[in-house]
Amino acid sequence: MKEGGQIEMGIVRSNDEVAPDHRILAIELPPSFGDGQPGQFVMLRPGECRDPFLPRPFSIYTMDRDGESVHLYLLYRVVGKGTVLMASLRRGDTVMLLGPLGRGFDPPGEAEKAVLVAGGVGVAPLVCYAERARKTGSGRALEITAYVGARTEGILVGLDRLEALCDVLKVATDDGSRGYNGTVTELFRRDLDKFRPPGSVVKACGPKGMTDALRDIVEREGLYCQVSLEERMACGIGVCLGCAVRVKGDDAEPAYLRVCKDGPVFDMGVIYRDDR
Amino acid sequence: MTGDVLSTPNMAVSIGGGIVLKNPVMTASGTFGYGEEFSSHIDLSRLGGIVVKGLSLRPRAGNRPPRIMETSAGMLNAIGLENVGVEAFIAEKMKFLRTLGTAIVANIFGDTPKEYGSVAERLNDVEGVTALEVNISCPNVKTGGVDLGADPVMAGKVTRIVRKATDLPIIVKLTPNVTDIGVVARSVEEAGADALSLINTLKGMSVDIESRRPHLGNITGGLSGPAVKPVALRMVWEAVRAVSIPVIGIGGIMNHEDALEFLITGASAVQVGTANFINPAATIDIIEGMERWLENRGIADVNQIVGTLDLS
Ligand SMILES: Cc1cc2nc3c(=O)[nH]c(=O)nc-3n(C[C@H](O)[C@H](O)[C@H](O)COP(=O)(O)OP(=O)(O)OC[C@H]3O[C@@H](n4cnc5c(N)ncnc54)[C@H](O)[C@@H]3O)c2cc1C
Ligand SMILES: Cc1cc2nc3c(=O)[nH]c(=O)nc-3n(C[C@H](O)[C@H](O)[C@H](O)COP(=O)(O)O)c2cc1C
Ligand code: FES
After folding, report:
1. Which residues of B touch A45 (CB under 8 A)?
2. What is the domain class of B13-305 according to CATH?
3. Which of A128, B39, B238, B268 is the most exposed place for a label (fewest CB within 10 A)?
4. pLDDT value at position A197?
């Protein structure tokens, strides 16, 4: 795999709405496109477009290859200029892609149980993780439990895939329209006695509030947790230093890592709790 | 490649201090890391030169996030000059850079004029460093940033100190955040600069209307990208008329047409910055585009278009 990813032109195969303001973009790429690891991402620009000016980062939702091409799927939520434009892409349109980029989730290794904690569209890289785990050696026997949260039932995404891949799937909604009425981290906390270090590992992706709450739990329990973080990005390959995330260290002299290159997946334990 | 060997135009340019670049296209500091990051995208040896991320005497952590924000046709950044420090640069980054066969320019800065001198001195004997670019213009750091470069006297003082500290050619990089660029340019020329480069970023700001907070952790940041190109071009024009040393044009260059505008206006070379984020192969596309443009017009040497702005 090439360190800094590759630039490729992709062709849109489909772009279906899967929930209000949530879509899956299917992109066909040449076979030379590198194999993405779960948690890695791509920088995407619709066509040759210059507005928005910068490409946008998206996690790999699924990726597979047949002889002639690579099929990449992105699960995304429409939130602003770039994703509105993305939503208007149709079959046959072109996109510019740079990827796969960054450091993804470590494979399950010796773990017996994997816990996935997802908030909203953060489910994307975790579906990729579960899928990959099932395809590889020890992952087949791995017990996977997924906790998925969203504001309301209508925008719960990725559940069909997780249902097929996980041993247990639990859902939380803020408004109680489906599953547990409350946060996904609280739902997970209630099950904690099922998961003990070192046999259990946690993989997470979601909004800052969720990851902060999760951090408190895993730190208390001593559970090993990897989390996929988000920051605004420009280059995606580690050169602009724009996507800095503060890491623990000396309080007087803050230290930063780059989400695009050192992450986006980090060990929860290294991230500084930033209450901004 | 199109055309036969004979019709390939000469692309080599001189940028002062005895430096000859194989073509006029360099990378801009802070947008190209230490070069290596781009090696999977482009053949680095084809570049006119690589200007590395700004180096200080000691490593620097940089500003608190968020550090970047997109704007119309550009971006704001407030990185805060995060860098590995000059020692780590020499120990870890030069080994790769010196093998590339292209000009390597070390961009330097300090918190005080004296510190500029110390960094320059440290780099003086390092094998493979072609020149120093002295950044007296970063708008993000309270000390040694905009205050230095906006004051012609201080700009001259820093240049003189660096001049004393090194035998390497020095390019002084100017800030656009001044009323009269000509005054600063002349002061720096008199102090012994071999060339000027401009512009660094324009100071700017952006606000989130829901939270009513600035988008950047540092409140203000530096604007770059196509949005700044007309300003950059105007300032290059003013600088070219003010001094007789070579001027390197920077600001919003996205394609070979943009680059040619700067050359016609009088820049001897250009640097490409933010465009590298949009397309990691931007520099090579610009070099090839420029070559083709010259070829198609039967122009044998890129120097024939430098400073040919027609004001008749
Ligand atoms: C490594 C990584 C992986 C990601 N994976 C996915 C994914 O799989 N699916 C998905 O829907 N989204 C993902 N995102 C977030 C996605 O990049 C942003 O939603 C997108 O850039 C917004 O662009 P926009 O032009 O539509 O919105 P803008 O108009 O730019 O912004 C709209 C809102 O989104 C916020 N925003 C902008 N950029 C980012 C960003 N990079 N990260 C977080 N918030 C941002 C802004 O602060 C603002 O509140 C990922 C982000 C990162 C860093
Ligand atoms: C993210 C970023 C970091 C930068 N870091 C530096 C730096 O360390 N030193 C410096 O002299 N200029 C720095 N610059 C300024 C650029 O080198 C260049 O002068 C400016 O961005 C204008 O050119 P552009 O529009 O092509 O980007 C930086 C610019 C950006 C966007
Ligand atoms: S986005 Fe440029 S360093 Fe991460």
Report:
1. 278
2. alpha beta
3. B39
4. 83
